[in-house]
Amino acid sequence: MLIIVAPGQGSQTPGFLLPWMEDPQFAERLHWLSAVAGLDLAHYGTVADAETIRDTAIAQPLIVASGLVSALSLFPHPSDAFGRIGAVAGHSVGELTAAAGARAISAEQAMVLVRERGKSMAHAAAATPTGMTAVLGGDAEEVKAALTQHGLIAANVNAEGQIVAAGTMEQLSAFAAAPPAKARLMPLSVAGAFHTEHMAEAVGVMGKLALAVSTHDPRTAVISNRDGKVVHDGRDVVRRIVTQVANPVRWDLCLATMRDLGVTGILEMPPAGTLTNIAKRALPGVETFALKTPDQLDAAREFVEKHGDPSPIDISPTWRMLVAPTKGTFVRSAGDEGESLAASSSIGLVRSTRDETSVTAPYGGTIVEWLVEDGDLVSPGQPLVRLHPEGVLA
Length: 394
Fold this sequence. Notes:
Layout: E1 2-6, H1 24-37, H2 41-46, H3 50-54, H4 56-74, H5 78-81, E2 87-90, H6 94-101, H7 107-127, E3 130-137, H8 140-149, E4 153-159, E5 162-168, H9 169-177, E6 183-187, H10 200-210, E7 221-223, E8 230-231, H11 234-244, H12 251-261, E9 265-268, H13 274-282, E10 287-290, H14 297-307, E11 320-323, E12 328-332, E13 340-341, E14 345-351, E15 356-361, E16 365-370, E17 377-378, E18 383-388
Parallel strand pairs: 1-2, 1-9, 2-7, 9-10
Antiparallel strand pairs: 3-5, 3-6, 4-5, 7-8, 11-18, 12-14, 12-17, 13-16, 14-15, 16-18
Helix pairs in contact: 1-4, 4-6, 4-7, 6-7, 7-10, 10-11
């Protein structure tokens, strides 16, 4: 199974778009998204220095646009891609890249959201000097205790032995002066304590904008940063992206879901490298491909052919499919085929060793076909029931 991933802030480096801009079609598409973002992304991706592109209001639109435009270079016919990609996931702001790539929202909607996300997060970060520090290694319990002692938040849990602490600069300085045993600290080049309560202002801004976003159910499985669950309701994809701004990124749970899905290959979109490096350590045996320059496109397509497998989500205008959000045992609560369900009705839950996750029919509909039985073991993204949109109860 092939999974496409999109990196988050901090992955950008000066000049990373230089080779891509030699392709006129890439340049034209980037120019269009630049107009939506209100930024000269070609300038920032080619000649701007590291300090300039560290600015949250610049870095975030630059990263999302780069991922979206390079995806079109990799998949000139996007409809073909959906038959090869098993799932998508994005780290932090990369979730917007993933959402647009899966067609839950449009590229233009993603650029408006990331433009305002970057601005509002930069404004929130300016209110109080805050930052983030990577914590590599150390005993997990000792690291957790040290974070609590200094009032810090584990804003990113990327993998075992790799978290990112966030808080005020004073809290981070005190943490650095007394680090956990055998842990290596590495301050990150970001402008604030992202994915903490310090970003509450940005959640409000994003939430208002999201009310006007028209969504579609994703064309392939989307793995959420919140809890690693597979999401197949476009509205829920956007809701989670909004609230994630002030909540920790659980990339470790995303990786666990990728393992449950049976991933064999992970391809990272530009600016690539960070997520594939994490995957090499966390998912041994899974092949990775970091797409950094356009001269890799042919090799990337070969990688897609090798690992690509049709998504289990078969979308047709006539049907709606509800899928399992996680691995576990399906406990059915809805009725038999032919029964009509009101919007937001529960059809059952998926029970795992970790928790229970309810599965609802967000749009309602008539049950056409059950694809699993009560008590069946299910995997993330596995279709559970097929609904017909007509016959929804008022």
